[in-house]
Design a protein that fits this description.
This protein has 145 residues and is mainly alpha-helical. It has helices spanning 2-6, 10-33, 38-49, 54-62, 75-78, 110-125, 131-143; strands spanning 86-87, 94-95.
């Protein structure tokens, strides 16, 4: 592939790469859109990231961070126990349990999962989560019994 790319202009090579990647991204998007259980969403993230680690996900959940807009950790709002209800640190609104074992509809709607990852990662990390972080975090939440 590299020799082929060298024989093309940079722009043409980029178009070829995009043509090869877009169908794979569409497959992952279709899988995520059809999600009705947390495992399906995890599988879609693993397809993108290559792996998932519940241990890394737990470290992300329990970690303390600087640079976030609202909180220094996930546990600030979601409590140390993902099976327990939480409360937003600023608005004091109640938050349902995060673990699917305690809240059946958690990690079942791909659009909601992406929405909350985007919002919460920015609030805690000060940036969007990587696909690897999403895979790890989801693996940890699913592993909770």
């Amino acid at each position: 592939m590299r020799a082929f790319e060298r024989s093309m202009s940079r722009r043409a090579a980029g178009v070829v790469r995009l043509a090869l990647v877009l169908p794979l991204m569409a497959l992952v998007s279709v899988d995520m859109a059809r999600a009705n259980d947390p495992r399906t969403i995890l599988d879609a993230y693993v397809a993108q990231a290559g792996s998932a680690s519940a241990a890394r996900g737990e470290r992300l959940y329990r970690g303390k961070f600087t640079g976030g807009r609202t909180a220094e950790s996930c546990t600030a709002c979601h409590t140390d126990n993902p099976k327990a209800a939480g409360q937003h640190v600023r608005t004091h609104k109640g938050i349902d349990p995060l673990a699917p074992v305690a809240q059946r509809d958690r990690f079942t709607d791909a659009a909601k999962v992406e929405k909350w990852f985007k919002r919460n990662c920015n609030d805690v990390l000060g940036r969007e989560c990587t696909v690897q972080e999403k895979a790890d975090f989801t693996a940890y939440m699913i592993s909770i019994r």
